[in-house]
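Supplementary Note 3. Input sequence used for the single-chain structure prediction.
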Amino acid sequence: MTVDQLRKLLEATTGEAVPTLLSLLEEPGSTVEVASGDAATPTTQLLTIYRRRAKHVQKVGLPTLGFDEALKKLEVTPHERLTIALAQAKGGHPHCVAFLAEDLSVVVATLAVLAPRPAIKGNV
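The predicted structure, written as discrete structure tokens, is reproduced below.
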């Protein structure tokens, strides 16, 4: 899948993190990686992973977009396997994930982590 193909799929979907992901596709120095269709992961496994990640980012106070929305979409998708596309700004944040149908025909959900973990007050 090319960046242009991913952009077209993103433009045909909605989601809280979609605008952030689209902007990363245009940003110089950002990286975009799309696993091949044969690297699809069972949706149930992705749900387990991203439910844990959602709890973690909330616990440590990471600013995010679309985690709850993405989990809800993953829970109801008819796709049994999904392929992940990752986009990351040059400095590491924002970092976005798009969950694609195994055949790369549609974006099922998106999410974004906007910044690194905030410093803990009192620690050096």
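The mean pLDDT is 91. Strands lie at 31-34, 41-42, 64-65, 81-88, 95-101, 107-113.
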